[in-house]
Specification:
The protein is α/β, with parallel strands linked by helices. The chain contains three helices and eight strands, in the order H-E-E-E-E-E-E-E-E-H-H.
Length: about 150
């Protein structure tokens, strides 16, 4: 009788664990006037790796920044994402691929962030070929290199 109860309890516990959703992470990216490396108008970190289902939280540490996806520089089927100036923005990344975010007022100063979801972003070539201000392009290329892509 006790064995039957223990067996049933073990099976029930296993079923509950299997039914729980996979734990997802929250990754914080700060919007700053000056980064820890002395560069101005930055997302910090400027590049992150994430898993599908993770939440990226853009934190408005310094006023005057927003976070917005760049048209054509997100995985296919992902809708445009746009936060408001001086407000935090949380985005759950469900699709694998690379996502490029900009600070709208500071794109010309190179304020871009790269989020890579999964291991092999299929849209990386499109991101590398994209036209954008010189400083933004340089920073983005540097982050792609840092991530080993």
């Amino acid at each position: 009788m006790i064995r039957t109860i223990l067996k049933t309890a073990t099976l029930a516990a296993g079923a509950v664990l299997l039914a729980l959703p996979a734990l997802s992470a929250e990754i914080e990216i700060k919007m700053l006037n000056k980064g820890s490396d002395g560069q101005v108008m930055v997302f910090e970190p400027a590049a992150v790796k994430a898993a599908p289902g993770d939440t990226i939280k853009f934190v408005s540490v310094d006023k005057g920044h927003d976070a917005a996806s760049m048209p054509g520089l997100v995985p296919e089927g992902v809708e445009a994402i746009k936060g408001k100036i001086s407000q935090d923005l949380s985005v759950t990344v469900d699709k694998e691929g690379a996502y490029v975010f900009k600070c709208t007022p500071h794109l010309g100063m190179g304020m871009v962030a790269l989020i890579v979801v999964g291991d092999a972003p299929s849209n990386l070539d499109a991101i590398k070929a994209a036209k954008m201000p010189k400083k933004a392009k340089e920073r983005l290329e540097a982050e792609i290199t840092k991530l080993g892509l």
